[in-house]
Structure to design on (202 residues):
């Protein structure tokens, strides 16, 4: 799909993919796409908006290639899991919001991440999932706007710090177990990274 303005505004565009099919979209303005796949994995291989945001919903699992809102926000909602469909950066955006009915990222049977969802988000990242979450910020600071999961949460800032994007004393992370890794700082002297872990968590 390609448009000189927007793709789906008042109502999203509905796309159905055959087994193994992929979606590619380009637009100047905002994109709103609801995807269904006959093999239960909707593969958004490439979605690019040069002057708007991207709002993508998947009725099953969502496998993300490269979703780039060059001056806007990216929102991804999946009935199932949200996983990386390529080995590079999956999200480029000002702010990102991820909502999954299962997990975000891929995991081995022992719960160790085998595939992080990768991003370059300059603003805040919010996420909520019913399962474990594994997110990696490839460059710049990872600014947490609110991430919630009853399972394990793995956050990595490969070339920056993990910071509180909200401020104040309220928790921006709620998780069962938590693993944070950063090449820079985790929280700041003047602003803690406030977390809320389930009883017995690590």
């Amino acid at each position: 799909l390609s448009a000189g303005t927007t793709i789906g505004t008042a109502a999203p565009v509905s796309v159905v993919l055959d087994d193994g099919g992929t979606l590619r979209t380009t637009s100047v303005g905002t994109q709103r796409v609801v995807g269904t796949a006959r093999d239960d994995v909707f593969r958004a291989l490439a979605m690019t908006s040069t002057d708007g945001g991207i709002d993508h919903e998947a009725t099953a699992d969502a496998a993300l290639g490269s979703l780039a809102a060059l001056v806007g926000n990216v929102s991804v909602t999946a009935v199932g899991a949200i996983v990386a469909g390529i080995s590079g950066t999956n999200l480029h955006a000002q702010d990102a919001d991820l909502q999954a009915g299962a997990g975000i990222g891929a995991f081995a049977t022992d719960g160790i991440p085998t595939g992080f969802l990768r991003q370059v988000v300059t603003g805040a990242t919010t996420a909520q999932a019913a399962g474990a979450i594994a997110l990696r910020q490839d460059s710049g600071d990872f600014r947490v706007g609110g991430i919630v999961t009853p399972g394990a949460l793995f956050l990595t800032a490969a070339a920056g710090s993990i910071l509180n994007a909200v401020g104040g004393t309220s928790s921006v992370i709620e998780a069962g177990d938590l693993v944070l890794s950063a090449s820079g700082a985790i929280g700041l002297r003047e602003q803690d990274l406030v977390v809320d872990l389930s009883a017995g968590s690590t």
